[in-house]
Design brief:
The chain contains 8 helices and 7 strands; from the N terminus they run E-H-E-H-E-H-E-H-E-H-E-H-H-H-E. The chain is an alpha/beta fold and 253 residues long. Helix 4 links the parallel strand 4 (85-88) and strand 5. The termini are far apart.
Length: 253
Amino acid sequence: MRLKGLNAIVTGATSGFGKAIAILFAKEGANVAVVGRNGERGEEVVRLIEENGGRAFFSQTDVTVDESVKNMVESVIDRFGHIDILINNAGVVVKGAAPDLSPEEWERSWQTNVTSVYLVSHYVLPHMLKRKCGVIVNMGSTAGIKGFKDRVAYCAAKFAVVGMTKAMAVDHSKDGVRVNCICPGAVETEAIKSMIENSPDPEQTRNMLLSRRLTPCLGTIEEIAEAVLFLALPQNRYLTGAILNFDGGTSAM
């Protein structure tokens, strides 16, 4: 167990990447705070972890709200004593070009994708810095390193996450806290599978997605979770300020 005895917070952990990360980290021995807004799904993740011998609890939290985040971090400290790993995974894709995007949609994208990373890090970092150890992994996207059609808010937000990662690494690595970012491309999440299956021509839609990669397949959420684990492993002490493009080669095209 590569994370045995370590304590982790995973935001956006009730589905998708976050769920896979929380389950994998618990399997590797970490105590996991499953953070999200959906109580039913959050408790289900906890149940899956506990059924496999892991330790976890669910914190119903709105990561865009200061007081909610502050209370969540305090509850983790009360339960676990300290925090070793933070995975800032919460996010949302907001579609639209600048002329079509409403100010409300822009704000929702910024708050969920960017402000959440700041707020959770703001309350977790003092605990890590006090102990002079810890690791933060931020969830970016290929949209944080190149532009995509009708994704102006999402690209802006994910570019910001990449920038925040580098700045936080510069600020805190010397004090024992590593900060890295993973930028996934299209992955076979439930949303992507549904989009393919419900399109007029599923085979054509899948081929279109594959045409944007160098690999003959899309990634999986389990592969993303394994990559996040690599960034978080305590023995990788020389790894900080890294932006890992996990996108089937999209960013190289």
